[in-house]
Amino acid sequence: MAPLGVAVVGCGKISDEYLRNLTAFPDLRVLCCADLDLERAKKQAAKYGVPAAGTLSQALEHDGVDLVVNLTLPSAHAEVAMAAIGAGKHVWNEKPLTTDPASGRALLQQAEQAGARVGCAPDTVLGTGLQTARRLIQAGAIGTPQTGLTLMQSPGPESWHPSPEFLFQLGAGPLFDLGPYYFSALAMIFGAASRVAAVGRRAAATRVIGSGPKAGTTFPVGVPTHVGALVEYTGGAAASLLFSFDSPLPRHGFVEITGTEATMALPDPNRFDGDIRIHAAGHGDWEVIPSAGAPAGRGLGVLDMARSLRADRPHRASGELAEHVLELMVAVQASLAGAAFEPVDSGFVMPPPLPEEWDPYARTL
Ligand SMILES: NC(=O)c1ccc[n+]([C@@H]2O[C@H](COP(=O)([O-])OP(=O)(O)OC[C@H]3O[C@@H](n4cnc5c(N)ncnc54)[C@H](O)[C@@H]3O)[C@@H](O)[C@H]2O)c1
Hints:
Layout: E1 4-9, H1 15-22, E2 28-34, H2 38-48, E3 52-54, H3 56-61, E4 67-70, H4 74-86, E5 90-93, H5 101-114, E6 118-120, H6 128-138, E7 145-153, H7 173-190, E8 193-201, E9 206-208, E10 218-220, E11 226-233, E12 238-244, E13 251-259, E14 262-266, E15 276-280, E16 287-289, H8 300-311, H9 319-338, E17 342-343
Parallel strand pairs: 1-2, 1-4, 2-3, 4-5, 5-6, 7-12
Antiparallel strand pairs: 7-13, 8-11, 8-17, 9-10, 11-12, 13-14, 14-15, 15-16
Helix pairs in contact: 4-5, 5-9, 7-9
Nicotinamide-adenine-dinucleotide binds near residues 14, 34 and 36.
C-alpha cells in the first residue's frame, strides 16, 4: 500500500496547521493546494513542499488525490464537498459540516450514493486529551456520567483574526464557530442529544477589525454573540453550555463531566492535549492525570480517515457526528427565537476510543 493522496482546498489561516501536520504524517501525501486565490495556493504549496497548486477543478482532476481536505469558509463547505464527491473523492470538511442541516444531509446522502466518505472537524475529539478521558470514563473513573457543564467566553476573535467578518455571520458566531468543539466533546461522552433550549443576545450591531491590513474597519454582526444552551441526551444525561464573544473576561476550555462517583475536568476541547483532573466525592483535592498517547494537531481526523479507509472500517470523526452536531446547533438557534425546547432527531454511531498506542507518525500504509 502507498500513502493516501490528499488535496488541501482553502489555503487561508487554518491551512498552516493542517499542512504542517498532513505533510508530517507518513501515511498521507499532500499532492495539491488549491484556493480561489491562486497566489495563496502557490504560496502554501511552496512553503510545505506540495508538488502542485491550482484551482479546485485542477485539484479534483488530479488522479493521485483520493481525499479532499476542505478548509474553505463555512458558506462554501457544502459546494466544495459536493464537487469533491462528484469527482469521485472522499472529503474532510472543516467545521461546521455545512451551514444548515438540509445541505449537510444532502451531502451525506450524495456521499453514500457515490460510495464516498465524509469526515469533519473538530478532530480535537481524537486528541490525546479527550481520548484519555474517554478511556478513563469507560474504565469507570467517575462512575456513570450524568451531567456536563461548559463555559467559553471571550471578547471575540475580531482582535486577532485579520478577516473576522465571517465569524459574525450565518454559520459562525460563538455558537457555530466554537460550539462544534464543545458539543462534539460532550457527544463523545453522552452520545446523541434529544432536545435543546437556549437564550441569547447580541451586545453590539457592529464590530471593528483589530489586526492586519483591514484594522480599524467596522463590520456588521449578524448573529447572537452570547448563547446559553441546555441539552438533554437520549441516554438521560443533561448539559449546560455557555458560548460568548461578549465578555471582557476570557475563559476557554471549561468542560466538566459529573458522574455518580466523581467530577472530571476535561482539557480544552479546542486543543488536542492537556491534563485530565478528577475530583472524587469526599476528596478535597483534584487528582491530575496526564493525557496518554502521541500528541498531534489538526489533521488527525484526516489521518484516521485514511487508515480507516484502507482497513475498511468506519472512521471516527464522521460526517454523521458532524451533521448531528450541526442539527443540535441549529436547534439551539431555533430555540433562541421561540424560547421553547426544540427536538434533535439525528444520531450517530459512537466510535471506539483510539488505542493509547495509536501513533500518527508511524508508517502503516
Ligand atoms: N482560523 C482558525 O483559527 C480556525 C480554527 C478552526 C477551524 N477553522 C475553520 O477553517 C475554515 C477556514 O477558516 P480560516 O480561518 O482558514 O479562513 P480564511 O478566510 O483565512 O481562509 C479561507 C480560504 O478559503 C478560500 N476559499 C473560499 N471559498 C473557496 C472555494 N469555493 N474554493 C476554493 N477556495 C475557497 C479563500 O480564498 C481563503 O483563502 C473555516 O471553516 C473555519 O471555521 C478556522
